Amino acid sequence: MSRSARSRTRLAAGAAAVCLAGGLLTVVGSPAAADHPPTAPPKDPVAIGSGGAVSSVDPNATQIGIDVLRSGGNATDAAVATAAALGVTEPYSAGIGGGGFFVHYDADSGEVETVDGRETAPMAMPSDAFIDPATGQPYAPFFPNLVTSGVSVGVPGTASTWETALDNWGSMSLRKALKPATKLADKGFVVDETFHQQTNDNAERFAAIESTADLYLPDGAAPPVGSVFRNPDLADTYELLGRHGPDAILEGPIAAEVVDAVQDPPTTGESDLPVPPGFMELSDLADYEVREPDPTRSDYRGLDIYGMAPPSSGGSTVGEALNILETTELSPTNLADALHRYLEASALAFADRGAFLGDSDFVDVPLDELLSDGFAAERACQIDPDAAAMKPLAVGEPDGDYETTCEEAAPGADRPDSEGLSTTHLTAVDRWGNVVAYTLTIEQTGGSGIVVPGRGFILNNELTDFSTVFNEADPNRIQPGKRPRSSMSPTIVLKDDEPWLALGSPGGSTIITTVLQMLVNRVDLEMSLPDALAAPRASQRNTVNVSAEQEFVDAYGSLLAPLGHTFASPAEIGAATAIEMLPEGRLLAAAEPVRRGGGDAGVVRPGRDD
User: Fold this and answer.
1) Of 96, 98, 54, which Cα lies nearest the Cα of 76?
2) What is the pLDDT of residues 516-526, one digit of tens each?
3) Per-residue pLDDT tens for 188-215?
4) Angstrom distances, CA of residue 429 to CA of 244, 278, 292, 298
5) Is 62 a catalytic residue?
6) What contacts 527, CB < 8 A, 6 or more positions away?
7) Which helix (H) or strand (E) holds 16?
8) How far is C-alpha 498 from the geometric centre of its chain's CA atoms?
9) Burial code of 384-403, b = ≥16 C-beta within 10 A, e = fewer?
10) Which of 353, 425, 370 lies closest to 590, judged by CA?
11) Element (H, E) at 495
12) What is the spatial distance between Cα 320 and Cα 65, in angstroms, rounded to a whole number?
């Protein structure tokens, strides 16, 4: 059967005849679906035990990671296998068409190391790529006109990240690590409400691209909840990737197909969306390389906090905010003060993020000064314990010459942020004590909306993370070959030189505040890890209003309003996962109980060993 023909039988509710088996719609005549139809696994947001742990947003992916650990694989093996599975079940958030950041703790050496698999801008990308030549202004509307486009697609780095991580720390080949996800893609998974709703939310964009509509909108509709969704094209792609490694995408036959999809998006011709072509060339793919920068490090109340260096702004912004908070004591007995200082410290760190953070291969990022205690003390002076400062706040001066007396806070400039709210995060720990925190993405939910024809994966729209308007003073301005600034914040925390906590979240620039708030909740407000993760969230990114979940406003608004905080309420913030290393070799894995449909945590041996 041809790829195009197979793409039309992926969903158990398409043109083929269907039957009801065990409550699931399955494709008649498909042995993988009809003989052994998949069932929807339960989700458990908390798991305690030993022998290893995995936490992700999806139970299929978590179980695959646990199976890898049970079979003798280590944390890196499990992380790659889990990530590949998320490329199947969470294709609108992550996959081999995107990139991400991988943070690893090595139990033998005691070192934390990282892989930067962030996407890059094509060498032919102009600085005014997001400007409408007819008006001289940014395209309006920016979303979805340039989100759904070849212009937004960066050179993907996820496959290279997987191979590099396995080469550095894994015990499995890439081919073996991909086998469970390959089987999952071929056999299928049960569509849940989140997948169905995300498809509906992107239906207009997906309908504009023929290959995407064939895969995700059979008969013009989103996959129904309870149906079995299969992606045999992705299974074939994973098999090819396992045999040839990332070169299958960067230099092999898939490379030409990626470039064709970017330069000439396979539109249906039946949509008003313009879907403009992009600038990627074969040479951009062939020249792509991951980086392995040193992690950022900050100390917080005796803990060592490790994160990602630029182009991620996560490690530096989380670290700076923690350094600011460390200048005072926070206590659950004075919740109003603790939350007030958390919001103000975050606003200060975000002011500096916008001014200084970008790809350090292209701009001079004063990373050491941003993470210095002297700079933190100077910035902490701007926090009035009795009142929220007027936002936006002014940028600090991380120049090594810090004032010992506090000056009145000055107003700052607004710095718009177009970073998408999708992405996914996973955490993994093995029996030997190796730890992985890995955040990966295709940017916007649904990425660029462009499925590479016959290959079953969506290309990213990561280049929309660059600043829309080119400014020579902007560290995040568009430049050929550059990585756009990211907020991904995979984080590993050591206590007494031993791993204690691994955590991260999706959510665009709210990733930073989600990780920061979870750390404050766990360390300062003395919440358990599940409570720290589930607690209502608020995100202050140097804006007039605090973005806050309604549950946060309901619980804490009356405490914070007298201090001058005002709120705007999004539906939810983040979809985090975390693992805590408990005494006696036990592990506590946690995932979201509700957000984005809830996540799933698993351990190799549930319960406490005798």
Assistant:
1) 54
2) 999 999 999 99
3) 999 999 999 999 999 999 999 999 999 9
4) 28, 40, 21, 22
5) no
6) 521, 535
7) none
8) 25
9) eeeebbebbbbbbbbeeebe
10) 425
11) strand 491-495
12) 33
